[in-house]
Structures are given as C-alpha cells and as structure tokens.
C-alpha cells in the first residue's frame, strides 16, 4: 500500500514538473488567423427583442465595414438599444425573434 502511495506521489510530482516548465504556445493575433470560418455581424436589439446575423464575410475588416449599414437600417425600422458583435461563427438561424419565443 505504501508503494502505491509513493508511486502516486512521484507521478504527481512528475506531472507538475512537466506542466510547470512547458513552454507556452504563442497565440496568433486575431488579424493573422487563417481560419476558413466566415465572419458574421451579430446585432442584438432590445426593442424589438431580436438577434440578427448578417453575413457571411470573408474577413473581419469586411464585416466591420458593413455593420454601419445594418445598424442604420434597423434604426430606420425603429429598433432601440442596439448592440453589435462581430464573430467567426456559423449561425443556424439568421433572425431570432425572442418575443415570439416567449409566447
């Protein structure tokens, strides 16, 4: 029993040493990622309570340049409290009407 305990302590010690002295992987910058996932503009409005996805875009910059037009269209339709996020995703539904889901 003592042998098993000492083996576990030794194994734990080796694991700690291994993970402690491992070199951290360099994280690529967002602008340098070469992922093939498309970019989407996600807009959430509070009135009406909806989530909209606009895209797909080939680059983050293309999505950023397009967001102003979508915001302007929603404001003209009377949308209030607009929040914008740009993400690399693949939405399954492009418009989510949360008011309909509540009913």
UniProtKB/TrEMBL annotation:
InterPro entries: DUF1816. This is DUF1816 domain-containing protein. It comes from Symplocastrum torsivum CPER-KK1. The lineage of its organism: Bacteria, Bacillati, Cyanobacteriota, Cyanophyceae, Oscillatoriophycideae.
């Amino acid at each position: 029993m003592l042998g098993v305990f000492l083996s576990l302590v030794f194994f734990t010690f080796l694991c700690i040493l291994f993970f402690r002295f491992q070199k951290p992987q360099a994280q690529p910058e967002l602008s340098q990622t070469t992922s093939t996932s498309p970019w989407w503009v996600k807009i959430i409005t509070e009135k009406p309570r909806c989530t909209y996805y606009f895209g797909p875009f080939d680059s983050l910059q293309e999505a950023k340049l397009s967001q102003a037009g979508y915001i302007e269209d929603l404001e003209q339709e009377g949308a209030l409290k607009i929040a914008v996020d740009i993400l690399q995703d693949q939405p399954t539904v492009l418009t989510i009407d949360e008011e309909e889901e509540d009913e």
